[in-house]
Amino acid sequence: MVKASVIGCGGMGTIHAERYASMPDVELVGVCDVNERSASVLGKLTGAGFYTDVQQMFDSEKPDVVSITVPTFLHLPIVKLAADNGVHVICEKPLALSAVEAEEAIQYCEQRGVRLFVGHVVRFFPSYRQLTESATRFGGVRGGVYHAKRAGAHPGQVQPWFKDPNKSGGVILDLMIHDIDYILGAFGEVSEVYAFNHLSEELDYASATFRFRNGTIAQLEAFWGYPGPFHTSFEYAGADGIVRGDSSDAESLRVLRSQSGNSADGFVETPQSVLLKDPYYEEIAHFLECFASGKEPIVSALDALEAIRWAEAALESARTGLPVNHARRETRP
Predict the structure, then answer these.
(1) Fewest C-beta atoms under 10 Å: which of 12, 35, 134, 219?
(2) Taking 80 as the threshold, does the pLDDT of residue 166 lie above it?
């Protein structure tokens, strides 16, 4: 039986706690938040002990693993505290506010012999898994063109720390990083990024174009302050077909396959449905399996570090107005 715990009892902490509580062979032993009411509510909801002091929870419950779901600027010190107590870590994305901090977190956990997993949950969505398979078929070694958008209300209206880039990293590091991690896993090595970022009190919008060494071009949009419900969409176009997905559609994935020969019919649309599995449950269950078996996860801490590096490159490009070559950290006119 794995003893699990959660630090941070907001929306994401509730997701983690509820998933642990529903898993066989897992016991949710404790939840912790500096806000006593939040900790109490989640503790009573899940049947776990609730705390306002992390060290007290570690001392009392002695968990095997902890999910860290606090604001980003608090990730590093709490990761280090968990490692000092020999507790394996599942940290929500982004791992840290900078690549320097992320490297410190990885090294700290390695030195103390604890596993560090990072919650880039997009890798566990069935539609994105199918997208990766289709992109391999349609683009192959020639590459393709990819566009993705992720937009919703500004979280800073609810949690003010999101509006402080020194605490959240802004829309690129906090929201677009979902898609940055995905394209790094799907399309390979990036050669360059060019980005734009518009920031005001009401909104934070960013657009970034990534060039991959296999020829793929990926254009990402992220938008806080969108006047409508949160939604995501993507489209991948290769020589042999197009793959589309939109969270607003009843169908989560549509594949348009190029017909062989010289057919005048163009594309044949083939709707594809997916199983309604919870990606957060799958993600946590996968990390727990890796913890138990010692195998490497689908998305590693080093993958999370690489996503932060490219997010920083996009931020640099947005600041300078120039493309950024990540490998050499140089800008070119």
Answers:
(1) 35
(2) yes
For residues 182 and 257, state if they share a domain: yes
Q: What pLDDT does 200 receive? A: 93
pLDDT exceeds 60 at position 209? yes
Starting at the edge strand found earlier in the chain, the sheet holding 145-152 runs 267-272, 253-258, 241-246, 231-238, 145-152, 217-224, 204-212, 190-199, 324-325, 330-331
Q: What is the pTM of this model?
A: 0.89
Helix (H), strand (E), coil (C) string for 229-248: CCEEEEEEEECCEEEEEECC
CA distances from 140 to 54, 137, 189, 298 (A): 48, 6, 14, 21
Query: What's the pLDDT score for residue 141?
Result: 65
Q: How far apart are CA 125 and CA 23, in angstroms?
A: 19
DSSP, collapsed to helix, strand or coil, labels residue 278 as: coil
- Indicate whether 302 belongs to any domain: no
Within a domain: 301: no
**How far, in Å, CA of 248 to CA of 307, rounded?**
26
pLDDT of residue 326: 67
Boundary residue ending a domain (121, 140, 162): 121
Domain coverage including residue 209: 122-280+309-325
Please report, for residues 21, 103, 211, the alpha-carbon distance to residue 281 in angstroms, rounded to integers and kept in the order given. 11, 27, 33
With a cut of 70, say whether residue 269 has pLDDT above it. no
Q: Is residue 263 part of a domain?
A: yes
Decide if pLDDT at 290 tops 60: yes
Q: Are residues 186 and 57 in the same domain?
A: no
Q: How far apart are CA 81 and CA 220, in angstroms?
A: 35
Phi, psi of 193 (to 5 degrees): -135, 145
Interacting residues of 321 by C-beta distance below 8 A, sequence separation 6+: none
Do 98 and 193 lie in one domain? The reply is no
- Domain-located, residue 176: yes
Examine the fold and report which residue of 92, 121, 150 is the final residue of a domain before the chain moves on: 121
